[in-house]
Amino acid sequence: MSLSAKRESLTRIHGRYQRAGRPHKTRILDEFCATCGYHRKAALRLLNRPLPTAPPKRSGPKITYAPVEVLPVLKAVWLASDQLCRKLLQAALPEWLEHYERRSAPLPEAFKKKLLTISPAQIDRLLRPARVQHPKKGLAATRPGTLLRHAVPTRSGPPNTTRPGSVEADTVAHCDDSTEWRLCQFPHVYRALQRLDRKPGRVEQER
Asked: For residue range 90-99, what is the model confidence (pLDDT) as tens digits?
């Protein structure tokens, strides 16, 4: 039986127990113990004391950063900053809060002061649902294809590195943090073919 159900049963039976005579109190006590699983002494203490008027206090430390209050602003800043990690976001919050106020609405000074003292661990806990909802995708200029999958035989097991000639090759796009085609028109943006010889560990790069 849950704790909330036990409280409801106590509220329902408390007044009847206080008004009953001794023979009826014994039957009510037996019923209360059988329903809620209390020991008779514990049940007597609950039935003889006044009912609590205020709801029970939440155990544990006081909630400083309520998700309903903090998460809308923190999530908007996190998405606008291209999903910075918790430590970088905590360091960049002063500048990003100014940007948020210019774009949205001014924030109360007490709220800004509280948000600027937030720890990286608390940021990580608050943004955990948002990271699941907005996963960050890495940059990739290649797509999976089936053209060479059937033409090149697949070998299982570890590669043969006992002699030179076992080469791994991959294309590398030197385009910083964007793969837009407009950036590829600039001379400093290029693609390179990178080859790695597993035996000597030599890396060759060709534009």
From this structure: 999 999 999 8
